[in-house]
Q: What sequence folds into this?
């Protein structure tokens, strides 16, 4: 499997946001990366909604 085709800046930022090592991110299967990004989006949306209701 080929490493993901991401720019270095994007890869570093995603690794930080997803809390995974950069090497692991680059060799992560695309469907797993998409799933983790969707989970992160849902988590951020939930925390944003909670802040608005306070």
A:
């Amino acid at each position: 499997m080929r490493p993901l085709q991401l720019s270095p800046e994007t890869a570093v930022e995603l690794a930080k946001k997803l809390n995974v090592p950069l090497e692991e991110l680059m060799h992560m299967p695309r469907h797993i990366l998409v799933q983790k990004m969707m989970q992160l989006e849902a988590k951020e949306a939930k925390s944003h909604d909670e802040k608005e209701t306070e």
Remarks:
- The first helix runs from residue 8 to 18.
- The CA atoms of residues 42 and 48 lie 10 Å apart.
- The chain has a mean pLDDT of 88.
